[in-house]
Amino acid sequence: MEQESPLVREVFPELVDELVHLLEKEGERELAICVWDVRMIGECGCGDDFCQSIRTSDHPGGQPYGPGRRCVPLLPSSGDLILDVVYGRIMYIEILGRPPLRRPVQA
Question: Is the pTM of this model over 0.70?
Answer without folding.
Answer: yes
